[in-house]
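INFO  loader      accepted 1 record
INFO  loader      residues=125
INFO  predictor   begin
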Amino acid sequence: MPKKQFKILIVEDEPFLLELYDAKLTQEGFDAVKAGDGQAGLSLARLEMPDLILLDILMPKVDGYEMLKKLKADGKTKKIPVVIFSNLSQREEIEKGLKLGAKDFIIKSSVTPSELVNKIKKYFK
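INFO  predictor   done
INFO  writer      dumping C-alpha cells
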C-alpha cells in the first residue's frame, strides 16, 4: 500500500524562503502548496485542506496571527495543525502564537531546512 503523501501549506512572504522550503519539502515526499501572504494562505487553506500549515508571522495583507485566528474560527479549517515558522523569538510572541492555537513555534534562524523537515515528519507519526 502506498504511503499517504501529506500536504503542507507554506505561508511565507519571502520568495527565496518560500521556494527553498517548497523544494525541500517536495524532495522529502510532501505535497507542498505555497502562499506569499496571509490572505492567499487563508484562501488556499480552505481550498486545499492541507494536513499542516507552516505559517510565517510578519507578512503583508494579513499577518500570521490574524490568519491563525481566522483559521481557528472557521469550522472547516480549525482542526488543521498550524506550526508558526518565524524569526520572531520573544517569549511574548511565542506565547501569543501558542495561545491562538498553533501546535508549535519554530524560530527560522535556529533550524536548517533538513531540521525543519525532521520536525514536520514528527507531526505525522
